[in-house]
Amino acid sequence: MTTSTLRASTGPLAAQHDLALVDLDGVVYRGAHAVEHAPETLMRLRGAGLGLVFVTNNASREPGTVADQLSGLGLATRPDEVFTSAQAGAALLRRRLEPGARVLVVGGPGLRTAVREAGLVEVASSDEEPAAVVQGFSPDLSWADLAEASYAVARGAWHVATNRDLSIPTGRGTAPGNGTLVAAVVAATGVEPVSAGKPEPDMYRIAVDRAQASSPLVIGDRLDTDLAGARSAGYPGLLVLTGVHRVREAVLAVPGERPDYLGADLRALDDVHEVPEQRDGWWTLGGAAARVADGRLDLSGDPDVDLARCACVAAWAAVDAGEELDRDTAPTFAVRTD
């Protein structure tokens, strides 16, 4: 039987790791604005010796552009501390294609640069008989771009997606992601692409190898990409509740997407993480408690991160033991951060 639960830390979580693999959208920033507490927390922990690599499924921008944005938000960042799915996609292309192979690039400047730096030749039309199509997110993509990709894939070009995120968080809310655009090409061709980004493990493993780290921690806001990728790569993962997935989604997470640690925001890196204990049928932590009885998830306590942890552990234990969980009883509260 496959089971998973939250982990405890023996001291502050950051002190147990030499590298943090940090997602960007929904973790460090939303649109043009920093997530509260994110820049100052990461700057302080970097000063204390924690290595940082910002690992993003957004393939539209150059690493230097991303680094400049982070620096402008108060988080001084070098381009070599940014690893994008565009770079991962280019690395995947090079495993199969020879230098000089023609590639139809459907994406933004970051993807175009990554393809060129990999020694491949960018083309603009399916009529140039590309060996591959690589598709990454860009807000400027048009129907014509998707059509060109569809023509090339239908003619036999290898289809590589930098990632298949269906949505992305923005300053105005949630918007369609690269996976939505990739799905249009799949619908037109019937061909499923290979994906280079999260949740595939290669992005994380390449970043860890480059940093020569021995104890990495993945940090993200999405269970289906960030945390699934962490489990796929074999690294522990921290879910922060500042982006796409919140308490309800964590409680209902399938084993392959569950986090090892749960925090309201990046300040959770300073915390000593405790795990709920089972007493008289309830999972308890601090003043919080949760249990599953007759398929219903019952909660007791203030809506804080301890209650979220109890809810997760209670639900996961019940589901992994073969019980049915009434999904309507999964909590929807926002974690209190004061």
Automatic annotation (TrEMBL):
Give the source's domain of life in one word. Answer: Bacteria
Kindly provide the name given to this protein in its UniProt entry: HAD superfamily hydrolase (TIGR01450 family)/HAD superfamily hydrolase (TIGR01549 family)
Determine if Transit peptide is one of this entry's keywords: no
**What span is annotated as the signal peptide, if there is one?**
none
Question: Which of UniProt's keywords are assigned here?
Answer: Hydrolase
The record lists the lineage as: Bacteria, Bacillati, Actinomycetota, Actinomycetes, Micrococcales
Q: Name one Pfam family in it.
A: Hydrolase_6
* MF terms (GO), sorted A to Z: phosphatase activity
Q: Its GO CC terms?
A: cytoplasm
Gene3D superfamilies in alphabetical order? HAD superfamily/HAD-like
Q: Which InterPro entries match?
A: HAD-like_sf, HAD-SF_hydro_IA, HAD-SF_hydro_IIA, HAD_sf
